[in-house]
Amino acid sequence: MASHLDLEEQEQIEELKHFWRRYGPMLTWALIAVLGAYSAWTGWQYWQRRQGVQASVLYATLEGAVGTGDQVLLSRALSDMQDKFGATTYAAHASLLAAHFFLDHNAPADAQKALTWTLAHSPDEGLGCVAKLRLAAVSMDTNDWAGARSVLGGKCPTSFEALVQDRLGDIDVLEKKPDDASTHYLAAWRAMKDREPYRQLVEVKLASLGVDPRQEEKKP
Asked: Does residue 171 contact residue 148 with C-beta atoms inside 8 Å?
């Protein structure tokens, strides 16, 4: 009996050896790949959390600089935020906040630089489109209407469609193109919900051009 069991055990051992010789290296590399991926994922998660904490502290510093009007500290905090934490949404928010500060303190070139950075680097498409709209407004303030129109090109989330069309209408008005302005304002009006407050402002703009959007809707 014992001899019979020994033979079975030896057969099993030989089968295991054969299996390992054939599949062992492949299983080993597969295990290494899985463990490596897991390690990379956990490392990435840790790095993301650490980045988020550090970025939030720096963002608080920038907010404080805005509150006290310290432009030197704000510029330094913004530069550090963009250089060290440019992949975070904190950096995009910080750049938008800094741009607002620069505009309020008559520094349009600095505002334009901050907004351009946000548009190019924001990981959030919506924040990028906010930067796009504000950057177009800065260009409009300097009568650079072609630049403003160029900035508004490209794709934005659907939720921003109405605002982009409205801003294009504003540019048309400045360029004395009432027909084009009406087309863009109508597109903005149609993209907005019925009770959306901003829709009323667009209606006022259309009325100033002699256009009633509700009558336009009835046309075949």
From this structure: yes
Q: How far apart are CA 178 and CA 44, in angstroms?
A: 53
- Answer whether 168's CB lies under 8 Å from 149's CB: yes
- Say if CB 202 and CB 185 are below 8 A apart: yes
pLDDT in tens, 7-25: 555 666 566 555 556 655 5
CA distances from 62 to 49, 76, 109, 115, 206 (A): 20, 9, 19, 16, 40
- HSE of 174 in the Cβ direction (CA atoms, 13 Å)? 18
Write the CB contacts of 178 (distance below 8 Å, at least 6 apart in sequence): 172, 209
Which single residue is written with the structure tokens 């360029």?
Answer: 175
pTM comes to: 0.73
Q: How far is CA 56 from the centre of its chain?
A: 17
Please list the helix, strand and coil fractions of the chain in percent, rounded to the nearest 5, in that order.
Answer: 85, 0, 15
Question: Could you give the CA distance from residue 24 to residue 47 in angstroms, rounded to a whole number?
Answer: 34
Amino acid at 60: A
CB 185 within 8 A of CB 205: yes
Q: Contact, 93 vs 99, CB < 8 A? A: no
Q: Which architecture characterizes domain 48-138 according to CATH?
A: Alpha Horseshoe (1.25)
CA 116, 124, 102, 64 dihedral sign is negative
Q: What is the pLDDT of residues 40-52, one digit of tens each?
A: 434 435 445 566 6
